[in-house]
UniProtKB/TrEMBL annotation:
This is Uncharacterized protein. It holds the Pfam family HAD_2. Residues 248-273 are annotated as: Disordered. Coiled coil: none annotated. InterPro entries: HAD-SF_hydro_IA (IPR006439), HAD_2 (IPR041492), Pyr-5-nucltdase (IPR010237). The lineage of its organism: Eukaryota, Viridiplantae, Streptophyta, Embryophyta, Tracheophyta.
Amino acid sequence: MEMEMAYDGREQRRKCDCLLFDLDDTLYPVTSGIGADVVRNIQAYMIDKLGVEESICLDLCILLYKQYGTTMAGLRAIRYQFGYDDYHRNIILSLPIRKVVFTNGDKIHASRALKRLGMEDCFQGVVCFETLNPTSPTPLPANKVEIFDILKHLAHPEPGVHLPKSPILCKPSIDAMLQALKVASINPQTTIFFDDSARNIQAAKQIGMHTVLVGSSERIKGADHALESLHNMKEAFPELWEEAVKDEDVRNSRGRERAWSSKADDDKDKKAL
Ligand SMILES: [Mg+2]
């Protein structure tokens, strides 16, 4: 497959110097069981800790995911009160290009998933939930907060009433994408972005990244390529391996990564994430 990287004004081909990977359903498929576990944990949390009725939990979960990018961002938007830590308790190695994971999941989930995949040492960094949302708010008392009835709002929208904005930064928000690139010192013009979500792919395309939809062989709007699985990556992008070997800058990428991750994480976290 021919790779169509961005060209500058003089029509010189820009080399890829970073691969940015989503985690869930991209680095591993749902069939591995981790994805299903996460969905079950989210629903259990909503029912047990937030008092959401079991009969509407799954529908609410899906609806909030669709509206806000993650169920958690939606729950905060409609005014459920919880701390972020509490909520979230629940072939690549051979490529000498800087590799970073960008997940909406928290760092414990990312660490566990990467460990389970045996890929802890494959990445120079992880941009995760805590990277974009470093401080957890102090929840207001339940009697001070009126939960926004999103089911009613979407079924019968009232004039002048808008969906509340979530305070949480996550994909596919453009603000979240830009913040992730800034924190990790990533140039979108020289980065390939891998994700299974059509919305995330479209957002990445909007800010100039080269995009690969994972988990499908059919390209969608905003996707430069579509790959059934990352296992096909070497066949799809042989030039990455060839070009990277020649590029001395790549060998310095690990050092750059340490510079940003060390601000927020201790040595143990840095190793895992
Ligand atoms: Mg995903």
